[in-house]
Amino acid sequence: MREYPCKHFLKLLAARARAAAMFAALALIAFSVSSCGRGSAPGIEVATEVGDFKSPWGMAVNADETRLYVANTLLNTVDVIEIPTMQISRSIPVLCDPRRLAFNSNFSKLFVTHDNQLESRHCATSKYLPSEPRRNGAWLTVIDIAQNKVTNEISLEVSGTEPSNPSDIVYDSVYDVIYVTARTNFFITAIDPETETVISRISYFTGASPYRLRLDADLGVGYAIDKNNNRIHPFAPDDPRSKSFSSFIYDGQTTGICAGTKGNRNNCPCTANSNCNSNYCDYSPMLPYCAASCSGSNSKKTGCPCSSNSGCDSGICSSGTCLNMTSLGVNDVRGYCDRSSGQCKTASEMGFTNTCENPWDVLALPDLTLYVTCGGSTSKASQSQPVLRLFADAEGFASSNTAVASQSSFQYCVKPTELAADPDWEYVFVLCSGSNKLLYLDAASGDILGYFNVAANSYGLTVSSQHIFVSSSSQNTIMKFSIP
Asked: What are the pLDDT digits (tens) for 257-285?
């Protein structure tokens, strides 16, 4: 098992007025939802305006949770915010357009991704390495935490090719590796945080667009989020110094949950052949499920009986069952399990007006549940989009989903993006960037407990043991909520 921070006077008055108004609004929301769900619900503590023209984005909390580090994409700095007071104690100049942050194993170094640098821009010149000229391309900044300054800038170029607009960054504590994804050409670059050198470029996701990465600390499984193709690619991480990522195969033979993909609801609970495409209901497992033989006409035979790989579309047979391949199509799911009745239903029968498009984030819980946010297509930017809850168990993965919460939660969750959970896995937090909401859900059930209003264009979300932090790029605001 894996184990896994006069003009100026008027401007100041206006800024303070905006901050006061925002705090008052957030305090009112906190009061209004304090009776929702459990008695010990999260609450608003403070909203901090970090300053005009900063556009805060990614955030990271240090080891003892006393400081919050914030990447300011327009001002090209990383702010150090003292969490007890939410006051900025230091601003560290960095290269152009910093995006996201990740610490190394002992929190002595902070790594910062950037959009690609242009030699014509002043911020493309390092203030800490005067021997370096202005540069083009993709770079990763290294900040020494003890010194509070940049000590290195790593070129992400590999074999004459560099990633375009590095975005997500993830630290793998098992192999001591930093992974960086790119938003445009979708490379995944592996960096050694100790030597501060590029190890390799991961080529496992050929033909895919791994926009973001998440690591499951319990299963030892990674998830690459493929927004362009509306898919999630599970993979088995390995040490990139000697190997690359490998396939991670989920067993499709999961009983009690509606499984299968479009047009195939095999393995879901059934009664009198209800909702069974195969017209056959097998009562051999603990729960009845819809079954199909591998010789049938159904083109999707995952989960059906097999022998010597005979008739398995995937070509993988284990313990007499055909297995799924590694990719999950989040907008190709048609069988939803209604837990109240134990039956499969369509998306419309479940009350969904939209299927999952443009997956944005994945959160893996210790009970093998996956939450997925569906940001939605551009044409549906103002519409409510689903947040899905996917199920896995000791036998494998069910590729169909149920709603995270009751239908009411979808009425005000427009463009769900970031996901996070508290360290005790009591709450799951969902940032609804299009409707300016922060939902908090019961992690065990997926039921919605309440929500808070957040500032417009909030795209940064990080959680410590005591607080939730939300950053707004357009309002230049960091909001801090308390966790009981």
From this structure: 444 333 444 444 444 334 444 444 444 43
Dihedral through CA 477, CA 141, CA 64, CA 178, nearest 10? 110
Q: Which two tokens stand for residue 101?
A: 């942050």
CB–CB of 438/468 below 8 Å?
yes
Coil/strand/helix, residue 270: coil
- Extract the tokens encoding 182: 């790119």
Q: Dihedrals φ, ψ of 451, to 5°?
A: -155, 165
For 370-397, b/e burial (b = at least 16 CB within 10 A) is: bbbbbbbeeebeeebbbbbbbbbeeebb
**Measured distance CA(86)–CA(63) in Å, rounded:** 17
DSSP label at 271? S
Residue-wise pLDDT tens digits, 32-87: 343 333 345 677 677 677 766 689 999 999 999 999 999 999 999 999 999 999 99
Look over the chain and give the mean of its residue pLDDT values, rounded to a whole number: 73
Any residues with CB less than 8 A from the CB of 151 and at least 6 apart, and which? 128, 142, 143, 144
Closest CA to 420 of 474, 373, 479: 373
Q: Which amino acid is at 167?
A: S
Name 91's bridge partners.
79
Identify the H or E element spanning 292. Answer: none
* Closest to 326 in 3D by CA, of 226, 242, 447, 416: 226
Helix (H, G, I), strand (E, B) or coil at 198: strand
- Phi and psi at residue 30, to the nearest 5°: -60, -40
Residues 94-113 have a mean pLDDT of 96
Q: What is the largest CA-CA distance in the chain?
A: 83
CA distance 282 to 268: 10
pTM listed for this prediction: 0.79
- The single residue listed with the structure tokens 């997926």 is 446
